[in-house]
Amino acid sequence: MSLDKLKKKFIRGNKKAFDTIYKDYSAAMFTICLRYTKNHDKAADILQEAFIKIYQKRELFNPEYDLGGWIKRIVINEAINHYRSEKKFEFVEDDSYFESEEGHEFIIEEEGINLKKVLQEILNELPDGYRTVFTMYVFDNLKHQEIADYLNVSINTSKTQLSKARRLIKLKLEEKNITRSTVLNG
Known about the structure:
Helix content is 68%, strand content 0%. The protein has helices at 3-12, 15-36, 40-56, 67-86, 115-125, 128-139, 144-151, 155-175, 180-185.
């Protein structure tokens, strides 16, 4: 079935079309949910609630647009709403942090060290506020204004949380003797 037909059937409420969409997108969306929580069960709950909303709001979807992007936005909103309701993190206003952003680096797996696993462990150790803003900015490509709007915080709070997350990640990597030179020369 073509993507256009799938979208149209989905909008009309066809269960097979919805099942196909769920099958195609649920794994990637679960990964997004997991970034917002450290718990697989909570991530699964968020995913389920998101797909319920996706089905309920299917008639609002414009088939001329990207289905994956629309689904991702609903999943992100659901994950953020979950944390708002639990008030799992606290943001601290701090205007003193500089606004310049360091460039993104490509990290190459060093022999004997699974950097992906190490980075995931470090992300899980971050305070919830840092991890959430870092996830929204780095993985979900949201701008600080969007993050601030989603979380009901100021843009400076978003920038501060991201800056603190980056510094803490760097510190934790250095504690594990993983530096830029070991990654690039590994």
